[in-house]
Amino acid sequence: MLTESTVTFIALGAIFAFSFYAVLNAGQLSLGQAGFASVAAYTSVLLAPDPDVVGDLAALLIALVIGMTAGTVAAVVLGLPTMHLRGVFLAIATLGFAEAVRIFLLNAEWTGGAQGLSVPKIVTPAIAWVVLAIVAYWFWRSGPTRYGRALEAIREDELAAGAMGIDVGRHRLGAFATAGAVAGLYGVLWAYTVRLVAPADFGFTAAIDGLVTAMVGGTTMFVGPVVGSAFLTVIPEIQRALGVEAGWIRPFVAGLLLLVVILFLPGGLAGRIPRRIRVPDLDGRGSGSGSDDGGSSDDGADLRTREHAPRGDVVARLSGLSKDYGGVHAVRGVDLEVRSGELLGLIGPNGAGKTTLVNMLSGLVAPSSGTASVLGVTAGRAPVHRVAAAGVSRTFQHSKLFDRLSALENVLVGGHLVTRPTLLRRLLWLPSARRDEQAALTHAARCLRRVGMLEAATTRAGALSYGDQRRLEIARALAADPSLLILDEPAAGMNQVEAGELAHLIRSLADDGLAVLLIEHNVGLVRQVCDRVVVLNFGEVIATGAPSDVAADPRVVEAYLGTEA
Ligand SMILES: Nc1ncnc2c1ncn2[C@@H]1O[C@H](COP(=O)(O)OP(=O)(O)OP(=O)(O)O)[C@@H](O)[C@H]1O
């Protein structure tokens, strides 16, 4: 039989685990939650009114609000200087913060030192579970929103998320602040459950406990923390029922479970629950069946969500653009214009500087000298998500898909810039949020259909064939409704039939009025589809012109195509 306190502790453990889930779901490993919880607990215990004066429930509610605010403020104050840190560096910095808070609380006089401060017991199992239900509701409703998907995209591939127009820094700080707020709730509930707030309860062991609970439960599904907490809290009960008294069994089993989860269940226990996403019925005949014919059934006009420059207008102007890496001149003094509706091929031998050039165009790499003006934005000065917002979308030489998300979810993230935020409206259950989510889904499904991949909508991106992954990257880039689409070796790894279909697709995109910059080693494909070709060699433009003229240029033949034979 579960005792009343076990039931309460399952809820508290789950709430604390949610504070880890909040950041792990966005790909950040923070161990500062115990610090946020203790700041929240002490602040609320010191500031909240006496229950004898205002009543138990009112006192607890005020304490929870104070605690949540204190936790959020602590997280933002810590997050601002540490958000550029990644992985283990962030973990160490946040752990350092939590330890500093603990040592301070231990040694300050007004905190009662190691003895702590006594607190009235107010929290009942019902209260703990109501708070848990509210926290779980937040994560349940926020998951399938534009915001929730952006966080998952950052977790899967931060660079690609930025290139889709997601402000990575702001979203990471948002996740961190959420972790602070939830840890704050936990700190207050803990204090008003155990009748005490003392530094020992918010040490390293507490942080690891929260992390293990979140990891074991699962960090990709909102029920994970509840599953993890129930599992780990119940272990001692089972032990007791079996008559085993050893106190080391729970931490031992927890450690073992963490090992098993990391080795065999990277998504945790709840990760085994399949994610469901309904593919919109685009033509009233089921999810794409019969219409998935490689892109002819959805013309470009259907995917338009914003105004574009008229055909022939310059969308990108590069002048004297150069990039040096130490002594390596990757790109040297490139002058180039790209126009709307033009399919421009960029070719050159390995190491010629093609990727570096498009990385500068898309804002990923700052030029050493020269300027690149792209759709009104100066590349190198604007962060990558601003360049994307201006209308630049791209694929990458090495696939940068969000592997654990389905094909449809990948494309939904691609539509970040052209869809409306739905988080607050979904929390309030407003019908307009449902309509907007449905519109985003339909847009994503159309993009998938455009590249002939609607039938793979629910397949995990990581499980797709190489050729399909390349097409999915194009669909994801198209979902942003770009004015300039940069394709970095899209045909790499494709067979001849697939490359032929791809050529047809790329040509149709330019015919729809898009400016397409195509980097490709497949010279046949470039000659077949491009209006104009630019050849780079050792970072310099050695030829520009119609594909047939460029192919006949002796410098190109020598530098790139080898001998004339
Ligand atoms: N981050 C970097 N640091 C140092 N050198 C770099 C970096 N990125 C590129 N380079 C160098 O710059 C040059 C151009 O590289 P880049 O990847 O742009 O060429 P590429 O034409 O795209 O080649 P490939 O066809 O093989 O992809 C190469 O000599 C490369 O080693």
UniProtKB/TrEMBL annotation:
<dbReference type="Pfam" id="PF00005">
    <property type="entry name" value="ABC_tran"/>
</dbReference>
<dbReference type="InterPro" id="IPR003439">
    <property type="entry name" value="ABC_transporter-like_ATP-bd"/>
</dbReference>
<keyword id="KW-1003">Cell membrane</keyword>
<protein>
    <submittedName>
        <fullName>Branched-chain amino acid ABC transporter ATP-binding protein/permease</fullName>
    </submittedName>
</protein>
<keyword id="KW-0472">Membrane</keyword>
<keyword id="KW-0813">Transport</keyword>
<dbReference type="InterPro" id="IPR017871">
    <property type="entry name" value="ABC_transporter-like_CS"/>
</dbReference>
<keyword id="KW-0067">ATP-binding</keyword>
<keyword id="KW-0812">Transmembrane</keyword>
<dbReference type="GO" id="GO:0005524">
    <property type="term" value="F:ATP binding"/>
</dbReference>
<feature type="transmembrane region" description="Helical">
    <location>
        <begin position="173"/>
        <end position="192"/>
    </location>
</feature>
<feature type="transmembrane region" description="Helical">
    <location>
        <begin position="60"/>
        <end position="80"/>
    </location>
</feature>
<feature type="transmembrane region" description="Helical">
    <location>
        <begin position="87"/>
        <end position="110"/>
    </location>
</feature>
<dbReference type="InterPro" id="IPR027417">
    <property type="entry name" value="P-loop_NTPase"/>
</dbReference>
<dbReference type="InterPro" id="IPR003593">
    <property type="entry name" value="AAA+_ATPase"/>
</dbReference>
<dbReference type="Pfam" id="PF02653">
    <property type="entry name" value="BPD_transp_2"/>
</dbReference>
<keyword id="KW-0547">Nucleotide-binding</keyword>
<dbReference type="InterPro" id="IPR051120">
    <property type="entry name" value="ABC_AA/LPS_Transport"/>
</dbReference>
<dbReference type="Pfam" id="PF12399">
    <property type="entry name" value="BCA_ABC_TP_C"/>
</dbReference>
<feature type="transmembrane region" description="Helical">
    <location>
        <begin position="247"/>
        <end position="269"/>
    </location>
</feature>
<feature type="transmembrane region" description="Helical">
    <location>
        <begin position="212"/>
        <end position="235"/>
    </location>
</feature>
<dbReference type="InterPro" id="IPR001851">
    <property type="entry name" value="ABC_transp_permease"/>
</dbReference>
<feature type="transmembrane region" description="Helical">
    <location>
        <begin position="6"/>
        <end position="24"/>
    </location>
</feature>
<dbReference type="InterPro" id="IPR032823">
    <property type="entry name" value="BCA_ABC_TP_C"/>
</dbReference>
<feature type="transmembrane region" description="Helical">
    <location>
        <begin position="122"/>
        <end position="140"/>
    </location>
</feature>
<dbReference type="InterPro" id="IPR043428">
    <property type="entry name" value="LivM-like"/>
</dbReference>
<feature type="domain" description="ABC transporter">
    <location>
        <begin position="316"/>
        <end position="563"/>
    </location>
</feature>
<feature type="region of interest" description="Disordered">
    <location>
        <begin position="281"/>
        <end position="308"/>
    </location>
</feature>
<keyword id="KW-1133">Transmembrane helix</keyword>
